[in-house]
């Protein structure tokens, strides 16, 4: 990835989620980039307008840190609630970035992680249905299964965005440096 494909720190970008068939799935109107390298993008948002594929809109309820890595088929949303940090992990293509925003393909499977460290794989029925309907290639199926395993290892080992220091550093950075929220 060249420098033109890295969002600049402090910039505000859209996050666009697509489905395998190319249709838009969901758009987050604005995320502040806290770190952008050719491998990792970390952003923060709070009370962000989200538009669903059917046009419905809603606003996020709590501050969140988002984590994207170009080498992994998942992204992680760390949501700060009164009773602790919840993680919502999307199995997805690695991200790409252009003038429209940060983009990825959502592959249905999700893992929700609770503040106590317990986690659950979600939406396996939706994955099977979409795999058949949108004709996911076997290669994609294998990659996604491998990355579910990698993601579960990260959760259990408190690696990457699941590390307590990650949360402290990026939550503080978002709160202190981007008070306009």
From TrEMBL:
It catalyses: a ribonucleoside 5'-triphosphate + H2O = a ribonucleoside 5'-diphosphate + phosphate + H(+); a ribonucleoside 5'-diphosphate + H2O = a ribonucleoside 5'-phosphate + phosphate + H(+). The keyword Protein biosynthesis does not apply. It comes from the Bacteria. GO terms for molecular function: magnesium ion binding; nucleoside diphosphate phosphatase activity; ribonucleoside triphosphate phosphatase activity. Its cofactor is Mg(2+). The active site is at 26 (proton donor). Belongs to the Ntdp family. This is Nucleoside triphosphate/diphosphate phosphatase. It comes from Salinicoccus halodurans.
């Amino acid at each position: 990835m060249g420098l033109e494909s890295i969002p600049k720190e402090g910039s505000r970008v859209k996050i666009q989620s697509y489905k395998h068939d190319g249709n838009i799935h969901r758009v987050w109107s604005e995320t502040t980039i806290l770190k952008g390298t050719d491998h990792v993008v970390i952003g923060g948002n709070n009370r962000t307008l989200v538009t669903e594929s059917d046009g419905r809109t809603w606003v996020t309820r709590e501050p969140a840190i988002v984590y994207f890595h170009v080498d992994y088929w998942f992204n992680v949303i760390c949501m700060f609630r009164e009773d602790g940090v919840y993680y919502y992990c999307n199995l997805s293509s690695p991200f790409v970035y252009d003038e429209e925003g940060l983009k990825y393909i959502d592959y249905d499977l999700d893992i929700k992680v609770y503040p106590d460290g317990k986690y659950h794989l979600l939406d396996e029925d939706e994955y099977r249905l979409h795999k058949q309907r949108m004709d996911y290639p076997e290669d994609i199926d294998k990659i996604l299964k491998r990355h579910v395993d990698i993601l579960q290892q990260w959760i259990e080992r408190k690696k990457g965005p699941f590390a307590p220091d990650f949360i402290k550093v990026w939550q503080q950075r978002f709160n202190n440096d981007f008070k306009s929220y």
